[in-house]
Design brief:
Layout (H helix, E strand, L loop, with lengths): L1 E10 L5 E15 L6 E12 L3 H7 L3 E2 L2 E13 L6 E11 L1 H8 L1 E2 L2 E2 L2
Antiparallel strand pairs: 1-2, 1-4, 2-3, 5-6, 7-8
Length: 114
C-alpha cells in the first residue's frame, strides 16, 4: 500500500498544466554505502492524474493498492533542492499496481478475459 501525501501542478511539453499525486510507500531499511550502517527511508513517486486541484487536496491521506519500485531509466540530472548539488541518476521510483498490470496484459480489444 502507498499513501497520497501531496500533489503538484506540472507543465507538459505544450505548456499546459496537469496535476500529479505524490505517493509514499512504507518504511524501507537501507544499508549505507559509506558507513555500512542500516537506516530507514521511504520511497516516493509521482502519479499523473486527471483530478483538479480541489480533488487532489481531498485525496491527500488516502491509501492505494500498490508499491513503489526502483526502475532503471536513461541517465538524467537534477538539482537537489536542499544542497544545490547537481546529481545524475539512472533510475527513478515508480508506482506499480501489479494486479492492474496483470489485468491490462489480459485485455483483448477493450474487454477483459475472465
Amino acid at each position: 500500500m502507498v499513501k497520497v501525501i501531496d500533489y503538484e501542478t506540472r507543465l507538459n511539453d505544450l505548456g499546459e498544466g496537469f496535476n500529479v499525486l505524490i505517493v509514499q510507500g512504507g518504511l524501507t531499511p537501507v544499508v549505507s554505502k559509506e558507513t555500512g550502517k542500516t537506516y530507514l527511508t521511504v520511497k516516493k513517486a509521482s502519479l499523473p492524474c486527471t483530478f483538479d486541484e480541489d480533488t487532489c487536496k481531498e485525496i491527500i491521506g488516502e491509501s492505494l493498492e500498490g508499491e513503489i519500485l526502483k526502475v532503471e531509466c536513461e541517465p538524467f540530472s537534477y538539482i537537489n533542492k536542499e544542497t544545490g548539488d547537481t546529481i545524475t541518476m539512472s533510475y527513478r521510483y515508480e508506482f506499480i499496481n501489479k494486479e492492474l498490470m496483470l489485468q491490462n496484459e489480459h485485455m483483448v480489444e477493450g474487454e477483459m478475459i475472465s
